[in-house]
Structure formats: structure tokens, C-alpha cells
Amino acid sequence: MEAAICEVCLKNDMLCEGCSKKLEEGEISQKAVDLSRYLYSLTKEHSYLKDIEVNEIYVGEEVIVIVAPEEDVGKVVGKGGEIVKKLASEVDRAIRVVEMSEEVKQFSKNLLPDVKVYGVNKVFSPKEDYYKVVVDSDDTSRIMLKDEEFTEVVKKVTGESAKLSFK
Ligand SMILES: [Zn+2]
Questions:
Q1: How far, in Å, from the CA of 22 to the mean position of ligand 1?
Q2: Of 8, 65, 113, 163, whose CB count within 10 A is highest?
Q3: Residue 6 Cα to ligand 1 middle (Å)
Q4: Single residue among 100, 115, 137 that ends a domain in this structure
Q5: Are residues 75 and 126 in the same domain?
């Protein structure tokens, strides 16, 4: 399994120097470390999880976003959703498994599966250019991410700034 922390750290309770640094610098969160380890512990029972890759685990207040490559999304969800169910009960929060894309437009859509996205447009601003992600205001409750959480997860995955806008 490939995750935010190395395999040694997935197996142990302590973090190696490299992984501690990531944690200290805020590149990964403690909750993401815990969840990666929990996911790893499930490989014993569910061997299909062994060779998966997890690009990012983002912990929001309402929902935890797990970003994985296209070919691994189904495995992270699990047979009949068994893995997602276990993760959700472990953290007592909704889990959303999202297909990886480094492209803002595509990733925003992947991140908001049940939300109508009207468009993703680049806005040129003297301060910092960003992508305006226009969504249907009727779908607000389905986003499950606060505006700043949406911006943060898109930045982590694509390196770009994006802001939600409601229509
Ligand atoms: Zn490590």
C-alpha cells in the first residue's frame, strides 16, 4: 500500500524522521496518519487492499475525503462498500472516495459527485489567480465540505486555488 506515510510507519506506532517532518510541516495531519494506519491494518483481512495507492486523505469536519487513482477507487470503497463502512464507523464521519486528477476542473467534479457543477472558470486576479467552481445552490447540503475545506483539498491535490461559487 502506498500512502502519505511510508510502509514502515504504516506498520508501527512511531513515525520515522521523514514522516514526522511531513506531519510537523502540516503536509499530512495526525488524523490522516491514523486513518492510513487503520486502512493498512485492514489489508490483513482484505488482501485486495495490499497494492492500492492513496494519494491524499483530507479530514473535513463532516466528511473525510480519500483520493485514490482511478484503478484503486473501487478497492478503497471495498466489495459492497465494506471498506468505506469500516472506515466511517472507525472515524464516525462520512467517507468520500474520490478519483485522483491533477486537473482542477476534473478533480472538482470528482470531489462533488452529487452536486451540479455549472462550470469551472479561471479568474485572473491581481492578488492570485484562482478557479471559480460554480455549483447549484440547491445542492449545498450535498457538498459536505465548508468553502475553505473545499479550497484546501483542491490545493493539496492539484496545487491550484479554487473557490466555490453558488448559483
Ligand atoms: Zn515513515
A1: 9
A2: 65
A3: 4
A4: 100
A5: no
Q: How many domains does the chain have?
A: 2
What spatial distance separates the first Cα and last Cα of the chain, rounded to whole Å? 40
State whether the Cα torsion 7-95-98-24 is positive or negative: negative
**Structural domain span for residue 83:** 1-100
How many angstroms is it from 117 CA to the middle of ligand 1?
38
pTM, two decimal places: 0.94
16 with 83, same domain: the answer is: yes
Q: Let me know whether 118 and 77 are in one domain.
A: no
Q: Most distant CA pair in the chain: distance in Å?
A: 53
Do 156 and 121 sit in the same domain of this protein?
A: yes
Q: What is the pLDDT of residues 55-98, one digit of tens each?
A: 999 999 999 999 999 999 999 999 999 999 999 999 989 999 99
Mark whether 66 and 119 lie in a shared domain: no
Q: Are residues 86 and 127 in the same domain?
A: no
Ligand 1 centroid to residue 1 C-alpha, Å: 13
Q: Provide, rounded to the nearest whole percent, the portion of the chain with pLDDT above 70.
A: 100
pLDDT tens digits, residue range 9-44?
999 999 999 999 999 999 899 999 999 999 999 999
Query: How far apart are the CA of 23 and the centre of ligand 1, in A?
Result: 10
Q: Contact at 8 Å (CB) between 108 and 64?
A: no
C-alpha 163/C-alpha 120 separation (Å) is 9
